[in-house]
UniProtKB/TrEMBL annotation:
Pfam families: NPCBM. It comes from marine sediment metagenome. Residues 547-649 form the Glycosyl hydrolase family 98 putative carbohydrate-binding module domain. This is Glycosyl hydrolase family 98 putative carbohydrate-binding module domain-containing protein. SUPFAM superfamilies: Galactose-binding domain-like. Coiled coil: none annotated.
Amino acid sequence: GSAVLRHMAEKGLAQSVYWGHGGDHESDPALMGLFWELFPNNYWAASGHTYHGGAGGGGHSRNVVRYFADVYGAASPVESKMGWKGAYIGGGPSVVVGTQYAASSIGKAQRLVRNETYLYVHIPRDELRGAANPIRWRGIPSVSLHRGYCGLGHLGFDSYHHNYLDGYTGSDWAFPGRPHHMLTWPGPNGAEPSARYEALLEGIQEGEARIFLEQTVDRGLLSERMSARIKEVLLDYLNHYCVWPQLRADSIYDYIHPWQDDSRKLFRTAAEVAKIVGIDVDQINLRAKVAALGRSDRTLGIRNWTGKPRAWTARTDAPWLKLEETGGKLLGFKKLPYRLDGKGLKPGQTVTGSIYVKDVTTGREQTFTVIADVIDPIELRADHTNFNIRCGKSETRQFRLVSNAAIDLQWKLATGRPWLKIAPSAGTIQAGKDMFITLTASPPDKTAATHDNGLVFSGAKGLVQKAVESSTFVIPLLREKPERKMPYGRIIKIEDMGERWKFFGTCLKGTRIETGVVKEIGKAHTAGLTNPTEGPPCARKEFLPIIGNERFSRAMWVYPHHESVFNLEGSRIRAFSAYVGVSNDARRRMIRNQHRKVNFEIWVDGKVVTQSGLMKTSSAARYLTVENLEGAKELKLITRLDSNKDDNTFLSCWSDCNFYATVENKKRDKE
């Protein structure tokens, strides 16, 4: 991984690296977290079907996944969605019957900002099926931009030898000879270009002309009359390409339609507009990060569209925004280097500055605005910073120290816990480098306990001084009740606790989660679950409370971090029991972070009395019981991940939960 990044960085393409295979789900989710820790700011590619990921239910963590691909495509709206500005996601396509265009291909959607390195691309498998005419390859780049995608992808150059479709004899979309896998043909001396490949190259050139024209309209550089004319030209060009993709039908109409005339009109209009625009810039705004005491070197594209040399000047209005050149003569395009200089900036600041590029001939000045978020010059990073330790044991973890600065800096990591050892605990980190710090926790507790580790991270000439959120959880070994016997008493199902259910479901971040109790309906179960946090819809049907090889009749489905609190005062309740774990359905169809472990805890009057211990998603169910609750005021159920973080995909089960009330004898009842 490091060698790949170094190679791409040498070519100025470090931000073009995305890990992963772009499938429906990642088979090793833990690898995503590890690579994010080792290679921060290098994102993953995922999701072959939707932005949320997982046609097969796998899903993805959008903290680290920033490249999405859509095989289904979107309907074509009349108004261009200008994918070059940053793709749209979300919403659903709606087709107007009897027309080629959809009223809206996006619905209520959110635009992914390209400055944040989000990419949402179109996989044209439906438009470019086996019998697709080569001319369709010419239009697909513009179609993708028009529909709101950043571009198109998953195209194979010479993938005709031993691909995954070898031997397939089926029909529908997965038939042999999928053309988006084959842009060349095998020849006696190697791969030979195809008509579809040449058409695609021409389509990319037309896509560049399209972007230029749309940018001039979007930036208000032209008259209303010229802007309206450009929209008409672009719509004419796309008219015979923008057919709803799921029709999966090609027609000789592709060739009967005067596509050559539309192409000539496109380039002729672009040439006419170029004379008006003269010199411009390739983007007008950017949101970026720069470290205090660090720097970020970038480039701004300056473009001369006239075909003749023109003079230009450039200036900035912010001291932290520095230019290498402030003027010259330009023929064609060039990259203007500039630097975001973090010297003198403080972490947590957000600063704004602009670069002004002037076309000396016309006097027109275009503004490029940069909003920079100032980050720490040195950072501690880890998958999570907590320790989960069995009584009498120890645990060793490594934290990664990363320098974002342009100079060497001093650092220190301290703790007030004598049983928490740090090596090294202080030192110097070189500019732009990283190193690992080893922490070993050996708490002396013989019973359940939770400790704040009291970590304080400091350095970077006083710019960094912060407490590190880190805890140590001491977990006793669970000893299940022999033969899993039920406690004695009158059974009260958890869903029948009514008003004694004092509080239900609080995330660590303070987000309220409404969670329903699953009731059996025939052979299926319906969980009425809603979660307002970001993520896929949490309503799930036909999730059975089967944990490993054990089937339970009902379950309370929760997402960590979860808490349920019950008022026991005056209730005559003497015991509680539950089977806990992760259902097979949730493991296979919903949970993203399969490497996480979950702990189920039962607290009575502010003290933990029993807990499951850390459980994998594949662990067998464990039986928790609490007795002698007479006189207790409150019982709390907590579901916590080893990371002590929220995860609104980690669906967990408290199965067959029952309270047990004292049973009075008949004689006393009669009295």
